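Before we proceed, please read the two lines closing this message. Tell me what the token row says about the fold.
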Amino acid sequence: MQKNDYSKLDSISIITEESWDDSSAGIESPILIERANKSIDLLDYLNEKISLDIIVSHSGWTRRAFCPFHKSGLERTPSFFINPFKNIFYCQACEAKGGIVQYLSLQQNVPENLVASFILQTFEVKTSELSNEKKRLENKRRIQKAMIVLSTMFNMFLKHHQDDERAFEFANKAMEGFDNAYALNKKGIESNIDEIISNLKNYFISYDRR
């Protein structure tokens, strides 16, 4: 995106919930906000808006400024920091934080979901891409939940058989098999994770029936 496009972001406050034609309806707000934050380079935008100092920081917070959100007047020491690598800002004083969506929301007093919709539609991020992003995040959450279930199942089995060396070997063999299969076919394992967990559950039950 060209720098002269940033002027479009200064008019969000004149848009209302009623007048904005939100073609992104049906897409969850967190997905809209995450995608919008990724679509704009925060440092490029703020370089045109506020005076930024370059500082040395091993943690990535390499830009500093006076916070634009303080209501009580100018601060004595700059407390507003930007991490260009993570594309986020943070104020140590008022604790305002986030990406371009949160910045514009605070600056123009507009809800974050409306800011995100405006950014995505103004800069032509397709709704189909958002739907794909939604599916990706939903699948990620499903895998994370399944991994927690899997870890809990292993731990409960080992706790129940904590004095049984053969049970430890039994569980270790199952875990090694899962790890090897996951390394070889991650996509296939993730798409069938629920069935795999069910099979592993039956596998552990079979030990107790011996």
Residues 31 and 104 are 17 Å apart (CA to CA). The mean pLDDT is 79. The longest strand covers residues 80-83.
